[in-house]
Specification:
- The chain is mainly α.
- The chain has a single domain, classed as AmiS/UreI transporter (Serine Threonine Protein Phosphatase 5, Tetratricopeptide repeat, Alpha Horseshoe).
- The chain is 77% helix and 0% strand.
- The chain contains eight helices and no strands.
- It has helices at 2-20, 26-50, 55-62, 64-80, 85-107, 112-133, 140-163, 171-193.
- Helix 1 packs antiparallel against helix 2, helix 5 (85-107) runs antiparallel to helix 6 and helix 6 runs antiparallel to helix 7 (140-163).
- The longest helix has 25 residues, at 26-50.
- The N and C termini lie close together (10 Å).
- The chain crosses the membrane at residues 6-24, 31-51, 57-80, 87-107, 113-134, 146-167, 173-192.
- Keywords: Cell membrane, Membrane, Transmembrane, Transmembrane helix, Transport.
- This is AmiS/UreI family transporter.
Length: 210
Amino acid sequence: MNNVGLLYVGAVLLVNGLMLLGRVPARSAGALNLFVGALQCVTPTVLIVRAGGDGDAILAASGLYLFGFTYLYVGVANLARLEPEGVGWFSLFVAGCAVVYAGLSFWRQGDPVFGVIWLAWALLWTLFFLVLGLGRQELTRFTGWAVVLLSQPTCTLPAFLAMTGAYRSNAGTGLLAAAAAVALVALAALLARSRGAETATPAPAAATTA
């Protein structure tokens, strides 16, 4: 069930990245954030209830609330035209938790690919904090491109792979995932510096997981 939610997170991240790039109006993106945010809160609740006290299952589901709350917060903020600072500072909390979940993926769960994915999400939420919480508007375009480029490889692709039984995580695939993430972040930096596109005004946007 968590992979179903991850699939739709890829969609909302893509839309939010385009919002930061000024391609999608904030209010237009708000509805999708509410839909996915609700899904990402209902899903872990069901998983935890069905876990029967299994600590590993509860731990695996717990991270979903970080992103469910983010998307709900963004949806409400966009539709109600709230100031973005609250979303920004909450994003800092999410980024810190994402680093912890990355460590758990690497050293407790033996899943280096998802460890890399968690680190990518930590980067995105850190950027949300800088843009929305601290008002670093010069990072808006880079953040938008980073979200757009990382949304599908960190969400949609692993979701489809997991649901079709094709997901593999080992040292080799982990290194490949890390190299791909670094390359995409570098590409986002290059696109952010490209001429002919004005920096979008920062608006509450979300980003991430499962």
